[in-house]
Write a structure and sequence with these properties.
The protein is of the alpha/beta class. The protein has helices at 19-29, 46-53, 65-75, 95-104, 119-123, 127-144, 160-165, 175-185, 210-228, 230-259, 265-305; strands at residues 6-12, 34-39, 56-59, 80-83, 109-113, 156-159, 190-194. It has 2 domains: 6-208, Spore Coat Polysaccharide Biosynthesis Protein SpsA, Chain A; 229-305. A 7-stranded mixed sheet has the order 3-2-1-4-6-5-7, with helices on both faces. Keywords: Membrane, Transferase, Transmembrane, Transmembrane helix.
Length: 307
């Protein structure tokens, strides 16, 4: 049986300190794979070092990790795609075991899980990063009924079907969140493989901003809930508006029974408006939920027909 064609995807921005080792490690542990380094406007020697190490180097001028990965997905043709960061924080020595699990279980996406063995917590010294990982994971697992252990890992393996059907409008580091929710929404086969995460070597600087990027991820999560679970999103909004409308209605109703007249007419009008908006919100959720069901059916048909 012919071996699958494997493409290693390494999006890079100023990773001169570590990119050489990442490329060489893959050449050691996965010698038959094609290693692609896509440079995203690096100001250091990332490109030269990657070429010297034996990688196929290409460029993406639009800034943002998601922009780079979308271009990789569009341009590279393979049977299996391994995405990894160029900062040497993920172990390459276990990649063959990850590939074996991916193939054996016919996965659509396999995620390198840094959290279940606490290696990320031990190695990463930024407390808010650990908090953010757990927060996003718990939110997604609750809203999407999943049991994923690591939502934000940048170490993943994808099938060709996944890569050629995936689409999104994001641009930056929200990519991993989007990949996870996208897979859950469309019912794709996701598995995880426990890895030993290691922190960046001294001198290597993270491009993540704890608070601004964390806010973007949370914002993306709620936008995706609105997109993928409209009945839940608009139903919750409708319930809140309806309850607030009823609370505002208590005063004019009490006035009417006490005086047979409503003195706080603006309050009554406001409460009625809230109730109407609540009903409209619920109706919107119902309509969008039916559209989402049709979209899922069309996606599965298109997905199954992808060669």
């Amino acid at each position: 049986m012919e071996s699958p064609k494997i493409a290693v995807l390494v999006p890079c921005y100023n990773e001169a300190l570590t990119i050489g080792k990442v490329v060489k490690d893959f050449k050691t542990y996965l010698p038959n794979a094609d290693i692609y380094v896509y440079d995203n406007n690096s100001k250091d020697e990332t490109v030269a070092i990657a070429k010297q190490a034996g990688a196929i180097v290409r460029h993406e001028k639009r800034q943002g990790k998601a922009n780079v990965v979308f271009k990789m997905f569009r341009e590279i043709d393979a049977d299996m795609y391994i995405m990894i960061d160029g900062d040497d924080t993920y172990p390459v020595e276990c990649v063959q075991e990850m590939v074996d699990q991916f193939v054996e279980n016919n996965c659509d996406m396999l995620v390198g899980d840094r959290l279940s063995n606490n290696s990320y917590k031990k190695e990463n010294k930024r407390a808010f990063h650990n908090f953010g990982n757990n927060l996003v994971r718990n939110l997604i697992n609750v809203f999407f009924g999943s049991e994923l252990k690591d939502i934000l890992s940048g170490y993943r393996i994808f099938s060709k079907k996944f890569v050629k059907n995936y689409s999104s409008s994001i641009k930056g580091f929200e990519l991993e969140t989007d990949l996870s929710i996208y897979s859950l929404h469309y019912g794709l086969a996701i598995e995880e493989y426990s890895i030993d995460y290691r922190d960046r070597p001294e001198g290597s600087v993270s491009k993540l901003n704890t608070f601004s990027d964390g806010f973007k991820v949370i914002k993306l999560f709620f936008n995706l809930v609105r997109l993928y679970k409209p009945l839940l999103f608009f139903g919750m909004l409708s319930l809140v508006l309806f309850i607030v409308g009823l609370l505002f209605m208590i005063v004019p109703i009490r006035e009417y029974f006490q005086y047979q007249y409503v003195y706080k007419v603006p309050t009554l009008i406001f409460s009625i408006m809230l109730t109407i908006v609540a009903l409209l919100s619920f109706t919107t959720g119902l309509i969008l939920d039916n559209i989402s069901i049709i979209d899922k059916k069309n996606f599965k048909r298109r997905y199954n027909n992808t060669k």
